[in-house]
Amino acid sequence: MSKLWLIARHHFQHETARRSFLIVLFSLPLFLTFSVGMGLLIERLSRHGATLGYVDRAGLLVNVQTPSGQRNEVRLAAYDTPEAAAAALDAGKIDAYYVLLADYRQTNHAEVTYRKPPSAAATRVFYNVVRQNLLAGQPAAVIERVLSGADVTMRSLDAHRDYPDKGPSAGQVLPAIAAVIFTFLILTTSGYMLQALVSEKENRTIEVIVSSVSPAEMMGGKIVGAIGIALLQLAVWLIFLTAAVWGGGNVLDVAWLRTVQIGWRDLLLLVIVALPAYFCIAALMTLIGTMMGDGQEAQQASGLFFMPLFLPIYLIIPLAQHPSGPLAVGMSLFPLTAVMTLGMRSIFLEVALWEYGLAAVIALACGLGTVWLAARAFRAAMLRYGQHLDLRKVIGGARSV
Description:
With 401 residues, the chain is α/β, with parallel strands linked by helices.
């Protein structure tokens, strides 16, 4: 066992000391920072204030103070006649103007004139000002409740899920985000898994190493080292993600991130599945690297195994329509698609505990079996150095090669 950890430590230190590792380590956080930053910058630049004129023939608008937080974006200008408002519109002083008719209190009928429709946010501000004046004399709590609008929550009794009317909250989609991060983690660390033995095979140091360690220790050490690299990378990403959520909610004042309520049940259960699933995939990548003649062939062969990782995304519509159907359950139990499928399904329903448990057991069993197979393939590769291996002969034993 001490030799296994020695190999794991050497592999971890050797790979993390490379300059390419630092590039991969910070590439995703920097890319996301740039993408989100540019999106916020474009959104802020495209946001411009609006000036709305009004002609109050009903004598209703006594208090025209715009709601808090929108005073710098929407301004209201009063005019005595529609002709004066139209002249201001032609001169570009206002973006649109409303005319409240004399019988507005009875008919709720108003006219709006514009050259370009005002934004929905600006229109909402004017409507709230009208409502606020219609509610004059009512308690402040009543006015606030009316202006805040309806707060609808959709509740699915069979799925044990509550959804706000504006869509899932940040906490509800967090397991799906974690599943996407898991997939990117596999893609970015797959090279370390594939190169676990290729470099030793190419520089012929493998013959020296196998004289002092067993194939199982060699395979186990390389896989544990690759998992350690992945955990380091994941820790950096989580620190960045936590800082991004805090900064988005407290600094940039993004409402969606201010009140993130984490669904710990689904998130922790997903982690329980992700750990053995990653172990299984790491063992599979190591097996591919062992059976291929060089690193380029290993990279080409591994592409076929990455396709199932994105299969749940391609099938998101049937999974969303039938989150508890046979397809969804089957993909939740398959190690290569389990994490992504469970993360997506958790948005639509509360996935049963037995599905998480069975998925973790299957992934762990497949990982252990793949490690055993990789050890046999390693032993067989020593007899056919630099050549392709037949998987059937590997399973049959090294003496059949």
